Amino acid sequence: MLFALGFLLNFVIGGVTGIFLADVPTDIQLQDTYFVVAHFHYTIMGAEVFAIVAGIYFWFPKITGRMFNETLGKINFWWMFLAFNATFLPMFWVGLHGMNRRNPSYPAELTDANLFITVAAIILGASFVLFAGNIVYSWVWGAVAPSNPWRARTLEWQTASPPPVENFLRPPQVLDHPYNYGVPGSVHALVGAAGASDGDD
To answer: Helix, strand, or coil here: 12?
Structure first.
């Protein structure tokens, strides 16, 4: 959930800053500066990478049959989120002050800002080490996952975790919309699929 929310916030920043690059008067000043670098990374890394990590954490129990370490996952999110923003938010500022991209040197007055960005980027990179470590640790020593730890209603969560070779012994019968969470009178998404549920959901 945290990584999904981080994706939304980062993507909003990436989208809003794209408006300035689409506007001719401002883009004349901002083109080929660190402002473009920051905007690009907010839309690519800040959005897609956070969404990919969210997906890995979400489907980890289904893939491995183990629950990931939730405490390490929360630390991983805040570490990655804060380090990411500490790296790329200042790039908007140095870009506004004329720091060109694809340049091996930079104005002396921007030395401190660029040093801060470099240190923050190193810290951001280290957050992925924690992510990989949590995956390995949880895969080996994590608690055994129930078939449906998130109480989800979509098909992949109606089989065991990890899924058997044949997900269902016969095609499942979908009776209700898979996203009717909390709707009075809604029924489970599946019935009559042998082996579809083991009672954990």
So the answer is: helix
- Return the amino acid letter for 104: P
How far is residue 178's CA from residue 169's CA, in Å, rounded to a whole number?
A: 20
**CA 130 to centroid of chain Cα atoms:** 14
Residue 99 and residue 185 share a domain: no
Find all residues with CB under 8 Å of 79, minimum gap 6, and list them: 123, 126, 127, 130
Same domain, 24 and 65: yes
Instruction: Identify the CA nearest to 33 among candidates 109, 81, 124, 94.
Output: 94
Strand (E) or helix (H) holding 173: strand 173-174
| Integer CA distances (angstroms), 42 to 7, 23, 55, 72, 98, in order | 9, 18, 18, 24, 20
Residue 43 near residue 11 (C-beta atoms within 8 A): yes
How many domains does the chain fold into? 2
Highest mean pLDDT out of 12-16, 152-156, 184-188: 12-16
Is the model's pTM score more than 0.85? no
CA atoms of 143 and 153, how far apart (whole Å): 22
Please report where in the chains the tokens 């979400």 appear, as a residue.
58
